[in-house]
Design brief:
With 174 residues, the protein is an alpha/beta fold. Helix content is 44%, strand content 21%. It has a four-stranded parallel β-sheet. The chain has a two-stranded antiparallel sheet with strand order 1-4. Strand 5, helix 2 and strand 6 form a beta-alpha-beta unit. Helix 5 runs antiparallel to helix 6. The radius of gyration is 24 Å and the shape is globular. It starts with a helix and ends in a 6-residue tail after the last helix. 18% of the residues are buried.
Length: 174
């Protein structure tokens, strides 16, 4: 839903959503009922990871059967089991976008290689770390001053305690 809402904001127009039913039991995947309206639209299938590729292949087939004019797949982790090329290569998916969080997966060639786009994750992580460091650097002095004022008013703690608390604060809580 977060992806759909972000895409809607970026496009400035309404973006519908849908889903494909999937069950996994004893290593077998079943289900395939599609709910949603993709007729004459571009479908984007989003999953956390791709291993054998059956989930993406089944979802792409369901979207095409429901009238999608194109199907793109996106996943964070490219686990890529040895048979992924045989599954996703002929699947009715136009593009498969993954990140490089896993680099020791099975080699990809043939039809899947032509559809595959691998995005580097390092710039995203570095950007987030930089933002947190900036927030910590700009917030710690303000928090320190606010804490010093509150504590001195109550006469509870000394300045050293306040400084130690400010420096020990987890930046992710800022």
């Amino acid at each position: 839903e977060v992806f759909r809402q972000s895409l809607e904001r970026a496009l400035g127009s309404s973006v519908a959503s849908g889903f494909v039913e999937k069950y996994r039991s004893e290593g077998r995947v079943s289900g395939g009922t599609f709910v949603g309206d993709v007729r004459d639209r571009i479908a984007i299938v989003v999953d956390d990871l791709i291993s054998a590729g059956t989930t993406i292949a089944r979802a792409a087939e369901a979207c095409r059967n429901a009238g999608a004019i194109a199907v793109h797949a996106a996943a964070t982790h490219a686990v890529f089991a040895p048979a992924v090329g045989a599954t996703l290569g002929p699947a009715p998916v136009d593009e498969v976008v993954v990140t490089d969080t896993i680099t020791n997966h099975s080699p990809v060639d043939g039809a899947l290689a032509a559809k595959l786009v691998c995005l580097p994750i390092a710039p995203l992580l570095a950007g987030r770390a930089w933002k947190q460091a900036e927030a910590a650097a700009s917030s710690a002095p303000l928090r320190l001053l606010r804490g010093r004022r509150r504590e001195s008013e109550r006469g509870i703690r000394n300045e050293q305690d306040i400084v130690e608390d400010a420096l020990a604060t987890d930046p992710s809580t800022l």
